[in-house]
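Lesson 9: reading folded outputs for more than one chain in a single document. The general rule is that every protein is listed as its sequence immediately followed by its structure tokens, and records are never interleaved. Here is the first one.
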Amino acid sequence: MQQRLEKEWDLSIDPDTVRLFILKAKALSAAVNEDYDDGAEHEVEFDGGTHASHHHDGLVEEASENLTEEEFRELINDLNIDEAAELIALAWVGRGDYDASEWADAVAAARERPRKRTAKYLLGLPMLADWLEAGLEAIGA
């Protein structure tokens, strides 16, 4: 686990904004996990006996899940270059790719990533919420 540094960080992205991303990421993760809690309930088998027991609440269920992901994407796309780079860097610090003392390097590397793919990249991180929380804690924000 990273050691918390006693340094004041001058972040472009507001820590409360990062906490909003953490909440959104947790909501997305919970929605995915609910779909797979009971695998038998969601399995559909058509080879021997017909066994279709997929429970679905219709478009309302899909719309709420998609709305959360869409909101997440829009929030990320609304960030400026510095904020987006810092959000990625926080995830990397939280994941352990960089130590908090390497913050400037992490931000510089994140800035080199294609800007258009930031939302897709972050949504693809399986423990994004946990890593963002750990990143904020590591830099003392």
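And here is the second record, again sequence then tokens.
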Amino acid sequence: MPSETTITTPIPTSVSRDAVLAALHDHDRYIRTTCPQLINYAHVSSNPATSTTREEGLPCEVYEVTDKRPIGQTTFRLTLTDRPGEGIDALIEGKAPTGSMTIRSRFRVLEGAPQSTLEERVAIDSNMLMNKMIKGNVEKSHPEQHQKFMAC
């Protein structure tokens, strides 16, 4: 059963909504921000036929990313879909030493009063042990990643 969590971070009034969107849509910055132990990455393809976003007419880019994680070095496929005016969707498909995993993240820049927020909804689908570990890591490390996207 998938595990879900939501991380919400207020956007400082000194940072524009467009600046946060531009930071999210910068795929190099996105990868370097969300993979702090990045070893390397390479662009694999654009608009893969298997992508669900292709049906929506949105372009997506696929990368192969190698990163160091608490469980060791892992290589995974990352599909990024820019959502104009909204944010970005990320799909991670990988195999860790403990089994396969799928992580879907939806970053959205939400307007609100008194200030806007950056919201990330994460769904993790792996074995029960990995779900718990990944969710804990997301809840611990992603607020800091949000701050990096806002440091425009």
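What the second record shows: The beta strands are 3-10, 38-46, 60-69, 72-83, 87-96, 99-110, 117-125.
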